[in-house]
Amino acid sequence: MEALRVEGVSKAVAGVRILENVSLTVRQGERRAIIGPNGAGKTTLFRIVAGELAPTAGRIFFFGEEMTRLPAYRRARRGLIRTFQQTSAFFELTVLENVLLVLLQGRHRLLGMGTLVHRDRATLERALAVLQEWGLADCARQQVRHLPYGLQRRLELALAFVARPRVLLMDEPTAGLAASDLEEIAERLGRIPRDVTVVFIDHNMKAVFSVADRITVLHHGQLLAEGTPEEIRDNPAIQAAYLGSVTTSHA
Ligand SMILES: Nc1ncnc2c1ncn2[C@@H]1O[C@H](COP(=O)(O)OP(=O)(O)OP(=O)(O)O)[C@@H](O)[C@H]1O
């Protein structure tokens, strides 16, 4: 079954073409990497799929249903969840409060978060279980701004999972990570249950080739190639245009 279909998507801003007629289909349960040089249009494609940006042309389908005009928050409610290159958690709140905010989905507004959590023991316990699972329990009461960078990135992923994704869009989950954090995140990405479809942008070829089932290559806003990791690795055109330089500069 197809989870996500991008059909002939183009985007122009002030006459400049950022994406041109990009199409791709991601099957349910697939891990799809989107790669390409800086400025290739990867993040713009994510923003269009997530509903943050309207395409100039083309359509987006989610489990067979068109959602090209659906606002981002309604796509999220259907299970299309996105993580960001920069951590999107609230920096002034604690790690635990951030998890609770996602779990409560706005219900805290009625009573105030403290009151609701006091009454809703089950939610608090669920939040603590999430933190345990993601190795964040020891910093539950720390403000996010005081967390080391690697743990901030881990929290970004944990929050995405709390939102119960059916399709998870991850924008550079390994960006800027030190070697030890990188291994930890790559290992966690590898363990994501198969009922979650994953589409991720990454410049780290080790992570891409170890996690992805299929790889889409964007170049100058166009689809340059798509295939299995082996097909992409063995494609001389891609090596010439992109892989060679990236493997040496980012691996
Ligand atoms: N709102 C905008 N207005 C004008 N130009 C834009 C806008 N958004 C993106 N661009 C341009 O479109 C191109 C593609 O940007 P995009 O961020 O999608 O690339 P990317 O492949 O994600 O790059 P990176 O790997 O550096 O994150 C870039 O040249 C960028 O400067």
Keywords:
Rossmann fold; 11 helices; BCA_ABC_TP_C; 251 residues; binds adenosine-5'-triphosphate; 4-stranded antiparallel β-sheet; 2 domains; alpha/beta; single chain; 41% helix; 6-stranded mixed β-sheet; ATP-binding
Secondary structure class reads alpha/beta
Residues in helix, %? 40-55%
Uncertain residue segments: 247-251
Looking at the structure, what is the overall shape?
globular
Range of strand content: 25-35%
Give structural notes.
This protein has 251 residues and is an alpha/beta fold. The chain has two domains: 1-79 and 164-250, P-loop containing nucleotide triphosphate hydrolases (Rossmann fold, 3-Layer(aba) Sandwich), CATH 3.40.50.300; 90-162, no CATH class. 41% of the residues lie in helices and 25% in strands. It has helices at residues 42-50, 72-77, 95-104, 108-111, 113-119, 121-133, 149-162, 179-190, 205-211, 229-233, 236-250, and strands at residues 2-13, 16-27, 31-35, 57-62, 65-66, 80-83, 167-171, 197-201, 214-219, 222-227. It has a six-stranded mixed β-sheet, with helices on both faces. A four-stranded antiparallel β-sheet has the order 2-1-4-5, with helices on one face. Helix 3 crosses helix 6 (121-133) and helix 3 runs parallel beside helix 7. It is globular. The two termini are 33 Å apart. Bound molecules: adenosine-5'-triphosphate. InterPro entries: AAA+_ATPase, ABC_AA/LPS_Transport, ABC_transporter-like_ATP-bd, BCA_ABC_TP_C, P-loop_NTPase.
